[in-house]
Amino acid sequence: MSSGNRSDTGLQERRVYSKFRRPDLIDIGNMRPGVSRDRILEAWLVTRLSGDQAVYRTSNSQLYFCDPASGETSAVLRQVFLALKVSRRIERVGIDALGAIFVGMKVVIEPVELPVISAALRLSGIAVESLEL
Questions:
Q1: 57 secondary structure, DSSP code
Q2: Fewer beta carbons within 10 Å, N or C terminal of the chain?
Q3: 86: DSSP letter
Q4: Measured CA distances, 26 to 29, 31, 90, 118 (Å)
Q5: Cβ-based neighbours of 14, under 8 Å, separated by 6 or more
Q6: What is the pTM of this model?
Q7: 130/54 Cα distance (integer angstroms)
Q8: How far apart are CA 121 and CA 104, in angstroms?
């Protein structure tokens, strides 16, 4: 390893970056004409998620997550909705102009429900972040 990656104590410095930076104009400009800004932001967001994280987008009150093949995350959310006595539809997120390629899931979460849902997901090993996009 090069000396630029080590501190004076010999321990490797941890390099931290945010993969949830806002999309650049070039990101938006490369999308097909006629695709809504919201669809572009959704595609940008879900392609950066991993299985152990979820993102709550405050501007549209939606929670985005990747569900494993077992459907474990969706099952946790359904149990919380049942306990809250609310009915919500969990949808797949399409990332292409035709809506044929799906990556990730989304569901509407009211701001007052967010603390309960965040706690349930954290207990399941899923970190929840909030973004204003």
A1: E
A2: N
A3: -
A4: 5, 9, 30, 33
A5: none
A6: 0.70
A7: 9
A8: 16
